[in-house]
Amino acid sequence: MSKADAFKQRQIQYTFFGIALGALGGTSNFLPFFKIDWYPWANFAIPVYTAVITYAIIRHQLMEIEVVIKRATVFAGLFAFVYGVVAIFTVLGQGVFQTLLGWPVWTAMIPSILIITLTLRPLENWLIDVTEKYLFQKKYDYRELMRLFTGEVLTIFDYNQVTRNTVEALNNIIKLESCAVILKDEATSSFKMVTGIGVREAGIEFGSEDPIIHYLRTSQSHLHINSDLKGAPAIRTLQQDFKRLNSAICIPIIFRKELVGFLSLGAKKSGDAYNQDDIDILMSLARTEAIAISNARLFEKLSATQAEAAQNEKMAVVGTLAAGINHEICNPLGIVRGQCEMFLLNYRDGIYGQIPDKQVIEQVMVIFGKIIKETDRATAITKRLSNFAKPNKAFKMTEVDVPRELGEVLAILEHEMKIGNIEVENRIPEDFPQILADRRQIQEVIFNIMRNAVQAMEGSGRIVVAGSRNGTRATVTIADTGQGISPDKIGLIFNPFFTTKDPGKGTGLGLFIVKQIVERNEGSISVASEIGKGTQFTLTFNLAHRETAPELTHA
């Protein structure tokens, strides 16, 4: 039997018990009519009946007594107002309107009718508001609470933000002395407080077999400090746990019949106890909370998986580029070595002994200059590759100079494009505005699209990069003269593990990751392609400075 059914059963039991007492007391008054000489002692059961029904009303919400009181208060206020207005204008009608103005008595009542008509509805609303404010402070708007959970908490995918919004919503709407979210740590299986307000201890943690966790897991129902602790095993431990949490009631968070945590709610600031309506709505909200937490955790795992996949894809690319870049590094090192060897051979053969020292020093200075230039070139290449290979630890939206990031990518791909006889035409205007995005991630997006373009062109080809601006958005297009993508495949290229490359030459994660990165940076990506003519990717991002600028295009 659920707690709701048990609650209703207690209501029925008290009602029938009270009725039985009242009937017993009342029927004893009729005994004399049947010539039974017995004093009606059972009359004393009638006050007991009243007490039982009163207790059932107050303790077990037998009747909507609050509605009765509210309506009675509003009705009394309206009656007093109407009666007062009529009485005042009756007196005025007799003493002023009729005597001074010569109006008949019934005409003097017209202003009172007009005032009552215009003010009755606003007065009723005001009385309702006052009644709820001063007599029923414990009442809160269930609809507002549900709206917050379904419209805000359920749609958030940040794990910490879900718990913070939950605590704030419950605390602000119900007006609680304390509120906390305790969730299961998947690594340790212990239950830790994630977010809390008004809790007496910081960093509260429960073991998986602690009494409070055991009760919530086995019963999968709420645990109330006043009623549910009675007779429970380890009652002292439970009482201590409630004291640490400054809690009055604990609501389990259940997902797929597994306890993933619980909500700890302190006493209401109004001083009123939690009733069955409160428990029903809180249990429903806990189910919503379970879904929100599950979604947030799943999203975190997916983000981590995507980040790992992106890094693996990047490292695979770095490995492929390493051989080509090795040639680019060996060239400047070979020049340095050749210059040094030439100088040493000339010195050994005594050539420098035949020329003035000043000329020797000048030749040495020229050699040193070439050495510095070539080592700087090799350092720049390795630095670009190293920066590209590093994992992006922190996502940070900042001002990004697209032409600069394009230059970095072209430097990394320079050798591969030389071998493939691929020409790059940069049509991005010099005054192209900065975009708002993560710099490292934008570089990764450009690199992936450019490298795909290089691989799509066999023998030779051309890549055209252009930029345009319209209002508060900037667009970058990257077009190649490659083989193109067939119409039946173009809708699949952003799907994970889909690739148009030969087996073993691609993981199918490149463009999938590109799309995820673009959308994370509040941008959009689209593709257009034609077999035999090439493919064009269009990237659109927000400007770093959102003021509307005149349209700028450069084809």
Quick synopsis:
The chain is of the alpha+beta class.
Task: Please provide a written account of the structure.
The protein has helices at residues 3-27, 45-60, 65-101, 105-108, 110-134, 142-153, 159-174, 211-219, 235-245, 276-348, 357-389, 402-419, 439-456, 487-490, 510-520, and strands spanning 179-184, 191-197, 205-206, 223-224, 249-255, 258-265, 398-400, 422-427, 435-437, 461-471, 473-480, 524-530, 534-542, 549-554. It is an alpha+beta fold and 555 residues long. It has 4 domains: 3-60; 65-134; 142-298, GAF domain (Beta-Lactamase), CATH 3.30.450; 397-555, Heat Shock Protein 90. The relative contact order is 0.05. The model is unreliable at 503-509 and 548-555 (pLDDT under 50).
Q: Please name the CATH topology of the largest domain.
A: Heat Shock Protein 90
Report the CATH architecture of the largest domain: 2-Layer Sandwich
The structure class reads alpha+beta
* Residue windows where pLDDT falls under 50 for at least 5 positions: 503-509, 548-555
Contiguous helical run count: 15
CATH class assignment of the largest domain: Alpha Beta
Strand content: 15-25%
The percent range for helix content is 55-70%
Form type = elongated
Strand segment tally: 14
Distance between the termini: 74 Å
Largest sheet: 6 strands, antiparallel
The fourth-level CATH homologous superfamily of the largest domain is Histidine kinase-like ATPase, C-terminal domain
Widest sheet, order of strands: 3-2-1-6-5-4
In terms of quaternary structure, what is this? single chain
How many distinct folded domains?
A: 4
Q: Rg, please?
A: 41 Å
Provide the residue-averaged pLDDT. Answer: 75
The H-and-E topology, N to C, reads as HHHHHHHEEEHEHEEHHEHEEHEEHHEEE
